[in-house]
Every structure is written in structure tokens, then in C-alpha cells.
Amino acid sequence: MSDVTHCLEITKYVVDDVARAAGALLPEPSAVPESAKYLRVSSGQEVQEPQYSYFVRAWDATEDEHNPLLDAADAADAAHDASTTTGVKWSHHVHLQCEPYTALDAPLTEFVYWNLKDGAEPAVVRALLTRLMAVVNAIPREEGMHKAGWGSVVGDETKYFVVIGWDTMEAFVTAVANSPAGRALLDDLAEHTVREVRHTVLNHPQAVVEARL
CA 78, 84, 86, 91 torsion: positive or negative? Predict the structure, then answer.
């Protein structure tokens, strides 16, 4: 039996004022084959720059299911971009190292988009991200952290994502301030990458989790 891959599609949109006023922040989800075990469809406005919104699809799939799923998702993106937004800033498919649903369902979801600098070694960055996630996941739940994970962008070993669930922005700020080990790893990563840290409150209007047995 093939191993399960945690698949995440993250699209960052520029949403115009007319579309935002009409509530048109969420394209219709693409069809996902019945063999996909779980599905999350989410959207939310960015906290830092509200002109941006995020559209997120998450599912688990075996290796032989993965490419057809991505083909379907890409087709849906092309069909809905023009009607819902003024443009797509970026869109990526990510293979995560752990399930994303806990972080996506948190009151606040953090996306960190990492781009390698010229000459940086992907293996070094992957090792640092693994260590950073160990530090973050050691934060007690009562301090406002739900779950953290990282993954690589499909087809591009120079791009990575971290997804973290928080109770509040204050919990995020406090966690960074109280973690010398985490800040040291962020400094190490800054030598090899450029990162974009953003937060959003995601909505799940299409159904939360659908189990297909």
C-alpha cells in the first residue's frame, strides 16, 4: 500500500473591493476523487494586509493519486481566478510532513513562506525547519499553540511552507519572545532564506472534514 501524502494547496489572492463587498473570497473547490480520504476547503483574509485573501485546499492522498488531484486543482484555479479576484500573487502545492487540519482549524493560522537565497543548500534548510518545528510543537497547548508543520513546494526545492495554528496573535508574539531556541533557529534560517510571515482567520464553508472509507 502506498504511503499517504499530506497535500496542501495555498493560493494568495489580491481581492478587489467589489468582490470583497460581495463576499466573493472563495472559489468553488475542484472535484476531488472519491479515493481521497479527507478534504478541507478554507478561505480567509490576511491580518497584516487585508487586500489579500487565501484559498486553501487540503487532502490526504496516496502517491499514485497525487498528480490527478493536482491536475484537477490547477484546472479549477484557472476557471475561477478572473471572476473572484484582481489577480493571484502566488499559488503553490505543498507536501507537508504532518497533517495540516489542526493548524487550519485553529482560531488563527500562520503561513510562513520561505524562499532559498542563491547558493543555499535545500538539505540545510530542511534540517533547520525540522528542528524549528520540534521547538514550536513543544509549546504547551495552554500557551495558545495548536500544531506546527513544514513542507516543500511540489517541483521546487527552493520554496518551503510552515503552517502553525494559534489561539491569538498575542499567543504567537509571546511564543516568539519566550523562545531563545526558536529565535536562534530563525536567525540561522535567515542566513539561507528570505521569509514572509502572514496570519489569517480561516473559514470552512464547504464542510469541515469528509471521511471517505
Answer: negative
CATH of region 4-200, choose from 3.30.530.20, 3.40.50.410, 2.130.10.10, 3.30.70.100: 3.30.70.100
Q: Which residues contact 46 (CB under 8 A, 6 or more apart)?
A: 12, 52, 53, 54, 198, 199, 200
Which helix or strand (DSSP H or E) is residue 79 part of?
A: helix 63-84
Per-domain residue ranges of the chain: 4-200
pLDDT in tens, 148-200: 999 999 989 999 999 999 999 999 999 999 999 999 999 999 999 999 999 99
pTM greater than the 0.70 cutoff = yes
Q: Are strands 52-62 and 39-45 parallel, antiparallel or unpaired?
A: antiparallel
